[in-house]
Amino acid sequence: MFVPDYKNIVDCALNKKPARTPLYEHGIAPEIMEKMGQEGILRDLEQGDLSSYFRKYCAFFLDHGYDTVTFEGCVTEILPHGGALAHPRPGYIDGREKFESYPWDSVADLYFQKFSPVFSALAAQMPQGMKAIGGVGNGVFEIAQDLVGYETLCVLKYDDEQLFADIFERCGSLLYTIWERFLNQFADVYCVCRFGDDLGYKSNTLLSPDDIRTFILPQYEKIVKLIHSYRKPFLLHSCGNIFSVMDDIIGKVGIDAKHSNEDQIAPMSEWVEKYGARIGNFGGIDTDHLVRMELKDLETETRRIYALAQAKQGGFAIGSGNSIAWYVDPQRYLKMVNTVRLLRGDEIHE
Predict the structure, then answer these.
(1) Which of 67, 69, 202, 233 has the fewest CB atoms nearer than 10 Å to its CB?
(2) Which residues pair with 139 in a beta bridge?
(3) Are the C-beta atoms of residues 25 and 68 closer than 8 Å to each other?
(4) What's this model's pTM, rounded to 2 decimal places?
(5) H or E element at residue 284
(6) What confidence score (pLDDT) does residue 350 get?
(7) What are residue 181's phi and psi, to 5 degrees?
(8) Are strands 316-320 and 280-285 parallel, antiparallel or unpaired?
(9) Above pLDDT 70, what percent of the chain?
(10) How far apart (Å, rounded) are the C-alpha atoms in residues 106 and 215?
(11) 306, 21 in Cβ contact below 8 A?
C-alpha cells in the first residue's frame, strides 16, 4: 500500500533529491474529485460541512499517491470592495481618497473569521504521514489588482506614482500581517508555504521588470523571510513569461521553488536548465495536454517529464503546469498520475 511521506515534497522544495519523486498540484477542483469517487464532496462544500468535506478532500490526495494535501485560503475571497481581479470591471480604489479610507485594518480579522475554522478542519482530517502545502492564497500583485484593477494600476504608475507605490506597500503589509498570524496558528499543519501571484503572460511580464523589482519583490522578500523564520520552504506559483525577473526572484527574494509552466512559453526542460541548480522545479505537464492530448501521447509526455525529473540532481515534483480545473478530463488526469506512480513503483489498480 502507498505510504505518504511529506518529507519528499519538502526535499523537492529545498532542491534536494527526494526518496521518491512526488506528485504535486497547485489545486484540484472538487468537481474532479466528485467525478472520481468522492461522492457528496460538492454537497458538503455547499452545505458547509467542513469535517466531511476535508475527510473526502484529503482522502482524494492520499488515494492518488500524493505526499501532501494542497490547500490555500485566498485573500481575495474576503476583500471588501474586491473583485476586479476575477471580473472585467474597474476596481474600487481609483485615487488617494479611496485608498486612505479603505478599511485595511479590518481585513486580517475578516480573513481569519472565514478561514480559521477551515484550516482547523483541514488539520483534523490530515492523514498520517501527510501535511499541507499552500497557506495564504494570492500575492501582492493579485491583491492590488483585485482592489484597483489592472488597467487603473497601469494608469496610476504615470498619473500618481506615489499612490502606485503606496498601494503595493500597503498590500504587502496586509499580506505580511495575515501570514504572520497564519504561521503562528497553523504552521504545524503545513510543510511548504506558497502563494500564487501571476506576474506574466505569454510573452512578457504584466508590469515592467523594473516596476516588479521596485514595488513588488521587496514585499515578497519580507514575507519569504518570515516563512523561512518558521523553517518552512517557500514555493512561488506564478504564471507567464517571467524570465526577466527570475534571477531577482531567486537571488533577492530567496524563493526555494517555482511552479507553473506552459509549453508555448518554454518547455519544462528550459526551466530546469536555467534555474534547476538553484531552486526546486514543480509541475511539468502542460494543462492543455490534460484537456486535449490523446491518452497514449499523454503517457509518452508524462514519461518524458518523469525522465527529466530523474535526471535532475535536485528536487522535482511532477504534476500539471497549472492546476486540475473542473474542465480537465478525469481520464487524462488519471493517466498522468498513474503513469508517474507506475514508474516509481507504486502498486495501483488502473
Answers:
(1) 202
(2) none
(3) no
(4) 0.97
(5) strand 280-285
(6) 55
(7) -70, -40
(8) parallel
(9) 99
(10) 24
(11) yes
The amino acid sitting at 112 is F
Confidence check: pLDDT of 253 > 90: yes
* 30, 45 Cβ separation under 8 angstroms: yes
DSSP assignment of 54-82: HHHHHHHHHHTT-SEEEEEEEGGGT-TT-
Half-sphere exposure of 24 (CA within 13 A, CB side): 38
Give the span between the Cα atoms of 237 and 6, in whole angstroms: 19
Q: d(Cα 311, Cα 256) in Å, to the nearest integer?
A: 19
Q: Please name which of 111, 129, 114, 123 lies closest in space to residue 54, comparing C-alpha atoms.
A: 123
Let me know: does 301 contact 293? Beta carbons within 8 Å: yes
pLDDT digit string (tens) for 255-314?
Answer: 999 999 999 999 999 999 999 999 999 999 999 999 999 999 999 999 999 999 999 999
Element (H, E) at 192: strand 190-196
What pairing do the DSSP bridges indicate for beta strands 190-196 and 234-237?
A: parallel
Bridge partners for 257 per DSSP: 235, 280
Which residue type, as a one-letter code, is found at position 14?
L
Q: What is the mean pLDDT of the chain?
A: 97
DSSP string, 307-323: HHHHH-SS-EEEEESS-
Q: Express each pLDDT in 181-205 by its tens digit.
A: 999 999 999 999 999 999 999 999 9
Residues in the chain: 350
Inform me whether the pLDDT recorded for 322 exceeds 70: yes
Residues 298 and 319: their CA atoms lie apart, in Å, by: 12
Give the other-Cβ count within 10 Å of 169's Cβ: 14
Decide: 254 and 221 in contact? Cβ < 8 Å. yes
What does the block give as the cell for 226?
A: 518570515
Cβ neighbours, 10 Å, residue 43: 12
